[in-house]
Design goal:
The protein is an alpha+beta fold. The protein has three domains: 1-50 and 331-357, Uridine Diphospho-n-acetylenolpyruvylglucosamine Reductase, domain 2, CATH 3.30.43.20; 61-329 and 445-497, Cytochrome P450 (Cytochrome p450, Orthogonal Bundle); 361-430, no CATH class. 44% of the residues lie in helices and 11% in strands. It has helices at residues 9-13, 34-42, 50-60, 67-73, 95-106, 109-130, 144-161, 164-168, 172-180, 183-187, 196-219, 235-246, 252-267, 270-282, 285-295, 306-311, 313-326, 356-359, 444-461; strands at 19-23, 26-30, 47-48, 139-141, 228-229, 233-234, 327-328, 330-335, 339-341, 344-346, 351-355, 389-390, 421-422, 462-466, 483-484, 493-497. Strands 1-2-11-8-3 form a five-stranded mixed β-sheet. A hairpin with a 3-residue loop joins β5 and β6 (233-234). The longest helix is centred in the middle third of the chain and has 24 residues, at 196-219. It is globular, with a radius of gyration of 23 Å. The N and C termini lie far apart (51 Å).
């Protein structure tokens, strides 16, 4: 793959210069630099994600070929008022507007709070089961990431889809992770004869999701505007199914591909992120002490203070650093007509894309320098939980390259009681794990809830010891460009319930 070659093309040509890549009949334009990427985010009306989403649904999630017609005929845009000159569709057939409305409305505010609180309650229950009958004794585990995956997946899916999905499909977790193991080969469009096991895994996963879709539709009752019901689970899943079911020509197989993508989006990336948050914390004793200090006041009387956790500068920075270091995604846009990007003209129909992996490791943008409170270098290839923290009295702190050209050679006096602030603003256009602009990932707030509160529950309920040291756990780059890359190593260790 061109973007994995060494030296990387951005080193040869520099950033900010669009690089054309011819891939068969596809015209790809590689975009780098914060200013260019922010320009893509600002021009939502001029750029579309339809071609990339059609490929994703067909290649990765097995959508029928006929879904292309439904998605491509809707050129009316994301706003309530259709784009001038767009196709005259009934409002119920406006796929993009309706999906944007349903997802963004129901993944924030009270709907988000309901979904997140159910995830936390479910996860607490799953974690309690781990120590049944052990009476505070240590127990060993062979693979920490697998343990996290097992307990978090059920908690997440039940919060999203309701409890009946596992009654109906007892092996649903196995079907999901078998599919997930093949997701990169599928997304790359490899044919069935080349990866038959991958297609079989996807077929089984889709069949299971289709079975649950039908079950939920047949059993669900009219529950008005309720945030949750036992058959569809969350309001976002119920309203999404209702909206898609009204679109002319939208079949049960199309709905299965959509639902499978939704479930994967809520678990396939965030569960590895929870694992990384825990691994990075547990292998650094001083960081673990600091994190426990943040969590403990929020866990009085065994109740998580969610707002306190989510507003913690350290926990937000830790989560953001996991996304910076462990995420590899592409942000794609296609011009509806010839598009002017700075002094460059991008032809209509080209696929413009940027790489989070490379933008989030650019030493001309990001800070890897010593700071007053941490007077050692912090390479961008290493994890540094405090990278997104800024102190008013420290010009060397914060995620972006310091404006000062000097380095701290000795510790000048600084206020040891000063509280840091969390910020991503200085690296806008470079920190892009969720994309950006009007088409930013609607699940980003739920992802933050899951990761920070999930980590807090593990650490507040259990003492955990891992048989690895900081920096020893590798990413599985088989999942490159697939989101948060899981750990490659099996990590053994032991844990016990906190008293």
């Amino acid at each position: 793959m061109l973007l994995k070659t060494n030296p990387h093309p951005r080193r040869k040509f520099g950033t900010g210069i669009p690089l054309r890549i011819k891939l068969g009949s596809r015209n790809l334009i590689y975009i780098s630099s914060p200013s260019a990427i922010l320009a893509l985010f600002r021009h939502s009306k001029d750029l579309t994600t339809i071609p990339s989403i059609v490929r994703l649904l067909q290649n990765t999630f097995g959508a029928p070929k006929s879904i292309r017609m439904i998605l491509e005929r809707d050129n009316t845009g994301l706003s309530q008022t259709p784009i001038d000159g767009s196709n005259p569709l009934a409002e119920k057939d406006r796929y993009w507007y309706n999906m944007h409305r349903v997802l963004h409305t129901n993944l924030q505010g009270t709907s988000l709070e309901e979904l997140s609180s159910r995830f936390i309650k479910n996860l607490e229950g799953e974690l309690e089961k781990l120590c049944d009958g052990l009476e505070g004794n240590w127990f060993d585990f062979p693979d920490f990431s697998e343990l996290v995956r097992r307990v978090c997946f059920k908690a997440s899916v039940v919060a999203l889809c309701g409890p009946h999905i596992f009654d109906l499909l007892p092996n649903f977790a196995d079907l999901f992770w078998d599919f997930d193991a093949n997701i990169i080969d599928l997304s790359n469009g490899k044919p069935r004869w080349l990866i038959p096991n991958g297609y079989r895994a996807r077929d089984r996963y889709l069949a299971a999701v289709k079975k649950w879709n039908l079950f939920a539709k047949e059993n669900a009752r009219d529950c008005g505007d309720a945030e949750w019901d036992e058959f569809y689970g969350s309001k976002v899943m119920r309203e999404r199914a209702q909206v898609l079911g009204k679109i002319e020509g939208f079949s049960a197989d199309m709905l299965a591909s959509q639902t499978s993508a939704m479930i994967w989006g809520a678990s396939g990336n965030i569960i590895p992120a929870i694992s990384w948050c825990l691994i990075e914390t547990l292998t650094r004793p001083s960081l673990l002490t600091s994190v426990l200090q943040e969590i403990t006041p929020s866990s009085a009387a065994d109740i998580l203070n969610i707002s306190s956790l989510l507003s913690s500068p350290l926990l937000q920075s830790l989560f953001s650093e996991v996304l910076r270091l462990r995420t590899s995604v592409t942000v794609q846009r296609t011009p509806r007509s010839d598009f002017q990007l700075g002094s460059y003209k991008i032809p209509k129909g080209s696929v413009m894309f940027s790489s989070s992996w490379h933008e989030q490791r650019d030493p001309t943008i990001w800070n890897e320098s010593p700071t007053l409170r941490s007077p050692v270098p912090h390479p961008l290839t290493d994890f540094w939980a405090e990278r997104f923290l800024i102190y008013d009295d420290d010009p060397y702190s914060g995620p972006s390259l310091p404006s000062t050209t000097t380095s701290p050679t000795s510790k000048p006096p600084y206020d040891t009681t000063m509280k840091p602030k969390f910020t991503i603003t200085p690296v806008s256009g470079s920190f892009i794990p969720f994309g950006g602009g009007k088409k930013v990932c609607p699940g980003r707030f739920y992802a933050k809830y899951e990761a920070i509160c999930g980590m807090a529950l593990f650490l507040s309920m259990y003492e955990i010891e891992l048989d690895v040291k900081a920096g020893e756990v590798e990413m599985n780059k088989k999942f490159f460009f697939g989101g948060v890359m899981p750990s490659k190593n099996k990590i053994s260790g032991r844990m016990r319930r906190r008293l």
